[in-house]
Amino acid sequence: MLYLDQRRPHAGNHIDVCLISHFELSEESYEDVLSFNNDMLGFKPNCSYCMDTMSVEEEFEFDFPRDMLAIQRYVDNLLNRIQANKLPAMTEKDFNYLSQA
Ligand SMILES: [Zn+2]
Question: What's this model's pTM, rounded to 2 decimal places?
């Protein structure tokens, strides 16, 4: 899932949630995702959100933990599809705390 926080100084924040999926979700799974979003975002004051689905051809796979920057390339590619700003510049080091299994 991709969360895009759109800061709107006068009208409260708005978060666009992108569900990235390489298959059609069942109604039940979709409801689970909506409920997850509500748990994550529903309590935020002055913040609205909406969700779109973005379908991709294949599940994301990469050479963990050797090629962590593959995550950045993948996300940038998705951001490009929805015309959002790219991620800030990163190095493998930025993933150090994430890659400790
Ligand atoms: Zn929206």
Answer: 0.79
